[in-house]
């Protein structure tokens, strides 16, 4: 069938360095149609016949990375970095005026890459395949365009909207989803928290973690409220340190100034406040705290705030230095009815405290808790809710301008591109990772048009049946005509020992999949997820290496389990090599084995012997911090992550094994999160589940490939490995 083509267009900033070493930031109009991308100096809709200054195709080896916020000419922009995963010297950057626009452009390039993969999978001509793989170096910029960068500081003022001259908001779709389906609101791993609502203040619910309070180590509480705006908008408001805006909703941290911005996802701020707003007879206070933020693949924003010390902000005369409670923000879009134009998000602020008056206050008894810093922090959710509710401009969601057609008036058709011999990949590395197959998008839209509402069904009776059938469904992934062999982990040894029970430390175990939520048989109809069953593959051993530089192709190393005599006799081995960036670097290598050969016609068979594009779009990991500091739990989260979309993955298929090298350091967000985890690694228990994402009805229900529990691993126990 002839597939329709999505078109995305809007204004972005092109960042780079010119031939004489000067940095530039040019306003450019970007147009994406199918897999083809064009860059213009002016809007081609308003200037018919204008020629693009850059043009090319999106290739399957290109990656997109969200670098976060950056200060450019006294204004904040959100930067996207594009690079070739096979040659990182080929790279480039664009910037957007808001985090929401950056997210939408990532989705746009995601669709462009899916289109390229679809055409490649349909068996296009050899010439077209070569065209997709041929790249040009487009560093620097053409001459005589400096006038577009002049006065930039007047253009990129966050929150000013499309009325600012030349600062035109991107006309991108907020409705086009990257994979055609929406995930459930809850995480994909079962958390140990037991939240109980203890009070409701100004329409905001106040919860306490009952399980944590019983330990006697203070209280872990959170404020939860629904805000009538998108998660992108709320994130912008929370991160903005403009005093006039914060005075309208923040009673504690209204006076903030930026001390240092370490990267696009981490900064340090200094603030002051007058305690007379809370109580009397106290001197003025000041504080320093760090902010670490990132956006998940489901669009949820997480902001971690921790007290900090900075040499640029020593204690001031006349101020008493206060320690702000460790806290976190979670801002998540809510699913609304398809016919509704309203946008809402759920805002959660979590903090830990040791306030004596808390227990009296939650029981509606008189106490001094309302005059404390923790209460002021919890009150910010209700202040945020009222502030945004009183600002119609913040709740307004611009209409989308996405055209789905066969031929566009302002861009060439596919045939014209082919005749023009377009053999260049656009802008050095402009692309995005695939999170779904294009085959699904058409059927999704057809299904949405027939069903104007999402029907929620009582499927409790079906879940029990699915739990019984899940094991038999997963067994179809392996060859039923071959007898099973017995897999005994005692015959295989890695550098990290296997734990005998849950109390052991610096070891690994393989838990069942019941702690993880995966897609059920009816997921495409009702988005129902079910608890996982026993893993299909058995975890035989774990290696914990310390290396100067992260290594790949571990399976070919003489010390690898794969090269042992016992390993060579196994029907199939899946090796997950997690490259952990640190000083020194670490490699965590997981060896999973099947007791039979893989069924080549199964989903696992397609994954094992498929293309890297297919693997990137399906390889999924679900993380969970089973035990540990709550701030680390918030940073890691429990949502499933398509690793091929988040970080660079390389695959090695030989003999009886498939190795997946996961470069965690290829993403600035992943680097910062793993840095936080390593700081607490000796006191946390990490659970991981790996699986192949099911996107078609015949592939459901999902099954868990393998699990691992890392129990309080010590960094100094890593074994040096010579390359």
From TrEMBL:
Domain annotation START: ranges: 195-348
GO molecular function: lipid binding
InterPro entries per the UniProt record, alphabetical: EDR2-like, EDR2_C, START-like_dom_sf, START_lipid-bd_dom
SUPFAM superfamilies reported in the protein's UniProt record: Bet v1-like (SSF55961)
Entry superkingdom: Eukaryota
Pfam families for this protein: EDR2_C, START
Segment forming the signal sequence: none
PROSITE patterns: START
Protein name, as recorded: START domain-containing protein
């Amino acid at each position: 069938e002839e597939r329709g083509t999505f078109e995305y267009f809007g204004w972005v900033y092109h960042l780079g360095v010119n031939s004489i070493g000067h940095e530039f930031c040019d306003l450019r109009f970007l147009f994406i149609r199918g897999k083809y991308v064009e860059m213009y100096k002016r809007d081609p809709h308003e200037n018919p016949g204008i020629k693009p200054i850059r043009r090319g195709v999106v290739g399957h080896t290109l990656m997109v990375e969200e670098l976060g916020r950056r200060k450019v000419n006294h204004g904040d922009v959100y930067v996207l970095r594009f690079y070739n995963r096979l040659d990182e010297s080929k790279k480039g950057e664009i910037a957007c005026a808001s985090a929401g626009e950056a997210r939408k452009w990532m989705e746009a390039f995601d669709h462009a890459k899916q289109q390229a993969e679809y055409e490649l999978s349909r068996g296009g001509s050899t010439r077209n395949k070569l065209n997709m793989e041929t790249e040009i170096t487009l560093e620097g910029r053409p001459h005589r365009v400096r006038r577009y960068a002049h006065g930039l500081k007047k253009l990129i003022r966050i929150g000013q909207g499309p009325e600012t001259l030349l600062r035109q908001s991107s006309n991108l779709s907020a409705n086009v989803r990257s994979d055609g389906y929406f995930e459930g609101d809850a995480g994909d791993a079962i958390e140990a928290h037991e939240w109980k609502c203890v009070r409701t203040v100004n329409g905001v619910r106040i919860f306490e973690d009952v399980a944590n309070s019983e330990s006697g180590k203070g209280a872990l509480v959170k404020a939860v409220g629904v805000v009538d705006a998108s998660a992108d908008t709320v994130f912008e408001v929370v991160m903005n340190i403009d005093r006039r805006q914060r005075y309208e909703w923040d009673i504690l941290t209204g006076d903030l100034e930026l001390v240092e911005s370490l990267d696009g996802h981490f900064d340090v701020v200094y603030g002051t406040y007058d305690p007379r707003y809370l109580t009397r007879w106290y001197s003025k206070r000041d504080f320093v705290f760090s902010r670490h933020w990132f956006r998940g693949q489901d669009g949820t924003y997480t902001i971690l705030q921790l007290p900090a010390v900075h040499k640029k902000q020593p204690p001031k005369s006349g101020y008493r230095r206060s320690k702000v409670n460790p806290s976190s923000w979670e801002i998540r879009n809510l699913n609304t009815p398809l016919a509704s134009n309203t946008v809402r998000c759920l805002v959660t602020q979590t903090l830990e405290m040791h306030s004596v008056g808390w227990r009296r206050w939650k029981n509606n008894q008189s106490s001094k808790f309302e005059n404390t810093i923790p209460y002021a922090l919890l009150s910010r959710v209700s202040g945020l809710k009222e502030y945004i509710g009183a600002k119609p401009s913040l709740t307004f969601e611009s209409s989308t301008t996405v055209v789905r057609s066969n031929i566009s008036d302002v861009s060439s058709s596919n045939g014209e591109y082919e005749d023009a011999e377009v053999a260049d990949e656009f802008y050095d590395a402009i692309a995005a990772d695939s999170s779904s197959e294009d085959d699904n998008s058409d059927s999704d839209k057809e299904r949405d048009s027939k069903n104007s509402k999402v029907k929620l069904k009582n499927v409790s009776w079906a879940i029990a049946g699915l739990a019984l059938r899940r094991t038999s469904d997963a067994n179809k992934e392996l060859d039923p005509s071959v007898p099973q062999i017995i897999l005994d982990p005692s015959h295989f040894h890695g550098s990290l020992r296997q734990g005998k029970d849950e109390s052991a430390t610096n070891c690994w175990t393989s838990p069942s999949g019941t702690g993880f939520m995966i897609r059920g048989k009816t997921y495409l109809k009702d988005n129902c997820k079910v608890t996982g069953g026993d893993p299909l593959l058995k975890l035989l051993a774990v290696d914990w290496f310390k290396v100067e530089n992260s290594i790949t192709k571990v399976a070919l190393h003489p010390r690898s389990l794969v090269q042992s005599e016992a390993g060579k006799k196994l029907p199939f081995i899946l090796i997950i090599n997690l490259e952990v960036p640190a000083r020194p670097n670490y490699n965590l290598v997981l060896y999973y084995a099947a007791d039979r050969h893989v069924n080549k016609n199964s989903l696992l068979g397609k994954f094992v012997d498929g293309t890297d594009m297919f693997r990137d779009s399906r390889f999924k990991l679900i993380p969970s911090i089973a035990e540990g500091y709550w701030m680390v739990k918030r940073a890691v989260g429990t949502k499933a992550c398509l690793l091929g979309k988040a970080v660079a993955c390389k695959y090695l298929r030989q003999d009886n094994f498939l190795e997946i090298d996961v470069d965690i350091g290829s993403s600035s967000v992943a680097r910062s999160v793993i840095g936080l985890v390593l700081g607490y690694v000796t006191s946390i228990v990490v659970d991981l589940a790996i699986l192949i994402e099911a996107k078609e009805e015949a592939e459901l229900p999902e099954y868990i490939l393998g699990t691992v529990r890392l129990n309080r691993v010590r960094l100094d126990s890593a074994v040096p490995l010579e390359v």
